[in-house]
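Lab notes, practical 5.
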Amino acid sequence: MNFSSILHFANEKSGNVFRPKLFTAIKGYTREKFFKDLMAGIIVGIVALPLAIAFGIASGVSPEKGLITAIIGGFIVSFLGGCSVQIGGPTGAFIITVFGIIQQFGIAGLAIATVLAGLMLVGMGLLRIGSVIKFMPYPIIVGFTSGIALVIFTVQIKDLFGLTMETVPADFFSKWIEYGKAFSTINLWTPATGIASILLIIYSPRIIRKIPGSLVAIIVVTVAVYILKNLFGITGIETIGDRFEINASLPSPSPIAINIETVNLLLPAAFTIAMLGAIESLLSAAVADGVTGDRHDSNTELIAQGAANIVTPLFGGIPVTGAIARTMTNINNGGRSPIAGIVHAIVLLLILLFLGPLTKHIPMACLAGVLIIVAYNMSEWRTFRSLLKNPKSDIIVLLVTFLLTVIFDLTVAIEAGILIAMALLVKRTAETATVSVIKDEIDMATDAEKTADNDKLILPPNVEVYEIDGPFFFGIANKFESSMRWQGLDSRQTDVRIIRMRKVPFMDSTGLHNLESLYRLSTKDGIQIVLSGVNEKIRSMLVKSGFAAKIGNDNICGNINKAIERTEELIADKKKHPSNCTERRG
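Output from the prediction step:
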């Protein structure tokens, strides 16, 4: 069974979750739309050229591998994706993760991790997790994005200044220490090349608006360095050709050997790639929706991203995701359908096949300049600074994610950031949820369950009402138990306890456990439990757990008025049969 048949089978079983935008875009597709997509695709292909080369080299692979990733991955993302204008390819966010995997497990390990990540992404899409991932806390996204930007900048220092170093340490602080020791080996022509590239990227768009600054910098600086080396004998400016052999062809696919041992070893790295790819691609799609007014299909997009990451490593490529900058370039130049993304991949393929050998003349310092600009744009330092004015919980998540990304790695940062954000969310939810004890009467003036003209609902004697306002989950369950223990009436003076749950949207197993404990202790004291305002989801949970049968279905009431009526029946029955006061009711 090939990959397309697997997707078709999974699509049937998952309720048509896979709906590529290409197949809807071609309906009513006109020549005018095609020419707009064609021009946009050509421009995006030109923009992607220097970035794909730079991202490939910075990730620890040869430059053509970056181009292959943009070609194959970009084609699959556009062909199968759930966003009409998404441009896929290698991105700066993956540089540090990919480089670390290659250093530890080699190219073969990266291929396995990428395939595993692709399978995870397909699984996320089929399980309809796309809409959930979009709600990743913003401080986490800014934290690891800014951390990646700082690490990318740090990695480029060696090539920017042409430092001579045997090895570059892996950790952040050791890098800067070794840079300081090697600073005496600086070649002044190299930093001049890098700084000239940065200035061209920044200022050339003011003069030449149609051509991206990174491409202008690569062309101008490469020509200038070629002249300096061949006409003036200037040496010491390292180029791509000095470090890599360029294979200007599309390779044949190679099988990837995967076994349980390597899966267990590379699963954390694969998880990082999958999460990062999902977050970045869906964030890019959401930004695109805001500009075009379209609406992407997040689950289809995840399946497409997964397919791209499964196929691309077979050709030696690196991880693929949606690229915000290239997607926005596509939109700004008139691209409105996946055809533009497909054209972008074809343009890059033609460049690889016919102009690939020329890339060996590009100076490494020039690519370092390109990546430093990428790092600056990724840093979001203004957003980072503004988030420092937010509540302390957001600041903690932001700084922890940022520091862990810089000091350790992205896997640790994302996992820790998510755990901290979840803990703070539980804390906030628990703080907003309340448990109140009502005695004697209920104020019905503004109550949604009011059915009579009177504004007060008088409770029968020896009846207490506990009202839960908020989700009844593990974060609030202990608060409920404390209220029962410290605020409740003396059990000797209580006949019935009404648990009012009209404002409880959901309940987890801890909340259910607390109810069962309350029921057990109350029954022991001869007190009947009545539930009021239980919604259908919670009622279904009570039935499945068997608690509804224990408490009695008659004691699960739709509103407080019915709960009071049931309470009066129970009290009357207790008076008739006092010897049964400790028996289970209902």
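Observations recorded by the TA: The chain has two domains: 34-164+179-245+270-424, 433-580. Strands lie at 88-89, 321-322, 434-439, 441-443, 456-458, 463-469, 496-503, 528-532, 556-557.
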